[in-house]
């Protein structure tokens, strides 16, 4: 396993800066996930680590060696792309071993590595098949196996599950987590899917506009978002944002929505944005706040209820099977110990 250190990285496309002055340290054996919306620069960053994109400035160290201008083949990486990119006329075994064979690796070594990767990815029974005889999930396993046979110090994944259906994504997500545990290798994974990020990552790097917004464990990024963008990007439904004011008695007010801030959330009196996750809004007959149900979304094991509280739209997750309907008046409480406060102007956490 190897560490990856990015220093003051700048990547441009024409006159546009895609990544600006980015610093990032990836520890050996870490599963780091680059998360963000389309166009935020996460895939560009990954491709620069792989050596597929030239740098405008800055440096890339892999395993303590400066690889800023090294060829991709010299960087000691294995990469899995969004598309499978398998050779249609070759068997699974030939696809997985292709890179090793053209590099002149001994036949016995090639066989050992392919067999090991096939066992890890449950491909032993498929080694003589061709890609057309495989399902989408099996093809992606082969693409992952092709990277694994390199026995690289760092593995890079560029949205490898985005072409699969929801069930296959969940299955391969679990297998990738187990694979990382078995190999202990350094892995850097790009996705816009927050479920993938939360379940796979040792740490998450949230990106927007070519810059890092927050780095932390999945729980840190989810529970204590650094700014409003991070808060709104993670979670489904996303966080509820309520613009209001805090008074001298540390009460938050936004029309009929009034609540006391707990000691750990003290704020300077003035305008603030209060953010609360849907699971922290609890419907209860004895609730101190009142709202009207505007929409109910049945989700199987829970419901998502959309509320109107004095013109403030709120989403909440309801786990009991109580009947809810649009137009119904309900009472609720907010778990104020779990809210976040943001500066309305800068969006930064208070």
UniProtKB/TrEMBL annotation:
Keyword list, A-Z: ATP-binding, Cell membrane, Membrane, Nucleotide-binding, Transport
Alphabetized Pfam families for the sequence: ABC_tran, TOBE_2
One of the record's GO molecular function terms: ATP hydrolysis activity
Name of protein: Carbohydrate ABC transporter ATP-binding protein, CUT1 family
Residue ranges annotated for the ABC transporter domain, each copy included: 4-234
UniProt key word Cell membrane: yes
SMART domains listed in its UniProt record: AAA
BP terms from Gene Ontology: carbohydrate transport
GO cellular component, one term: ATP-binding cassette (ABC) transporter complex, substrate-binding subunit-containing
Source organism of the structure: Massilia yuzhufengensis
